[in-house]
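agent> fetching stored inputs for the 2-acetamido-2-deoxy-beta-D-glucopyranose docking request
agent> found them:
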Amino acid sequence: MGRSGPIFGRLLAWYLFFGAFFFPLMAAVGAPPPRYRDAGLSVEERVEDLLSRMTLAEKIGQMTQIDRSVASPEALIQFAIGSVLNGGGSAPSPAADATEWADMIDGFQRSALSTRLGIPILYGTDAVHGHNNVVGATIFPHNIGLGAARNEKLVERIGRATALEMRATGCPYTFAPCLAVCRDPRWGRCYESYSEDTEVVRSMAKIIAGLQGTPPPRDHARGYPYVHPWGRSVATCAKHFAGDGGTTGGVNENNTVADYPDLFHVHIRPYLDAVAMGVSSVMASYSSWNGVKMHANTYLLTRVLKQEIGFQGFVVSDWEGVDRIGPDYKNSVKLAINAGFISDLTDLVLSGQVTISRIEDAVRRILRVKLVIGLFERPMADRSLSGMLGHAAHRTLAREAVRRSLVLLKNGEGRGKELLPLSKTASKIVVAGIHADDIGLQCGGWTITWAGGPGNTTHGTTILEGIKASVSRRTEVVFSEEPDEHFVAANADAAYAVVVVGERPYAESQGDDPVLTLPREAVRTITTVCRRIRCLVVVISGRPIVLEPYVGAVDALVAAWLPGSEAGKGIADVIFGDYDFTGRLPRTWFRRVDQLPMNLGDAHYDPLFPFGFGLSMNIPPPDLSSS
Ligand SMILES: *[C@@H]1O[C@H](CO)[C@@H](O)[C@H](O)[C@H]1NC(C)=O
Ligand SMILES: *[C@@H]1O[C@H](CO)[C@@H](O)[C@H](O)[C@H]1NC(C)=O
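agent> prediction call returned; pasting tokens
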């Protein structure tokens, strides 16, 4: 490998020097358009033709992904950058609408198209529960809630809706879905995981078919990336390969200790489903497996993922694919344009430490995806789709998803003593808790900003608004964020109280939590209200948290996860009995953190509520034939 270095070096220097003059010259004298532009040829023919025209600098540029905040036209053109992304919270302006997003992405595209070969960029975003960086987009429940709903058709529909909202802003690529199998809720990304159970994660991987479209079975080679070419689907990225949810103590990006069969059966199997559906890319995990960093793990990335599983899309990492910039790629220095990556990689190739075939493998895979999704034919945003952002039909779908994701954990002390369904005609009711009237808190992390945050951060319906819209006009609804004894005494005649409490938003390592206790104000609200008024407690959280001390004090208990922008209507649909509860725990609800990790099948299994638990109110399903 080392000895071929100088020869490659000279060849590449030649390419770098003359390539830039030669090809435009040929085009200028009226040569036919290059084969890679011929949509009549196969993707592979076009890839090979394009690859054969690229200089080393263009190949490395193609492998480079930069944040939108550093993507100046000069940078995009000078380095022939292949991909631009926005990290969580990175937006063209604070409340940019669909048009502003599309204008920005089209602007990057115009720079890319003006380069020598005119290879369009692939613009990516973390659309992990809807198109969540964009104000006004529909925010769906986070994955843990969808794992509770356990409905493949539902996630497929959510995938389609999310793809449309992304296309409304001109964005063709999402860093989703997260196929982590979270084995320890102390992990700050546990809510991005559908379940502790690999089978549930496998079935929820079906969201890929919604986002990308379903490949026609006959034409589709196993492992070949597929995105429906109609311009309303988006490329996806299954993440984080592999073992991200298995780290010791649930510490983010830490070490997963497992033998290969365990790693395969628990953490890798969902990737087989993703690859079979034509997933476009796979993100390497920053965690380690038995002490070896995943993104340096040639055995798992090359031997297992590419060769054995047959994956033919591209791997996103700080080495083979793209640089880690932005929140998901946190350790990156936001280097002016990543010059470090580009010059380091160039040096490594020129000195023979990285073979050109390795570079070409990566570039071939990236070009393949760009051609599959039709970027060369249709690089610009389709402005006719701008009305799809936050479309009413998508909000209705999100409301349905909320409804199906709710898990009823307790309902009174036995037959005849149920609190739910709640009466819509009580003369007075209490609503309490800081999560009851706050869009930001009900959406959680990865919402408008990277970590999410409280307040009126985007459009939606709060739980208080959902309750007010459901009860009779004569019902008095008394609300307090943090009720004290006086408030409760003054309203002790209320028929019932709905207490909405939970975790504050967080993302990634910042959400790692060794204690998993409710915030102090939440405990105070539960104990103050539930002592005097019959109460339903709705828990807004990204994972099971310590609840055992309070279960006896509450009359009814619902796990609502991180339900998103349509939480208000979706929760009201169920607590007032228009629909029954159908969600089942996608995770074991532990009693004490000293039991963790504790998953279904463990010898020391002694949960507060077991995996799969979920009560119902025995309400007959609504009669759809009459409507
Ligand atoms: C895991 O976390 C510990 C404690 O923070 C740290 O010392 C160690 O380096 C981490 N291991 C890996 C593989 O990241
Ligand atoms: C929240 O923001 C939306 C628009 O961003 C606005 O229509 C709505 O009135 C705001 N609600 C409150 C309570 O401020």
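agent> quick read of the result: The first strand starts at residue 65 and ends at 67.
agent> awaiting further instructions
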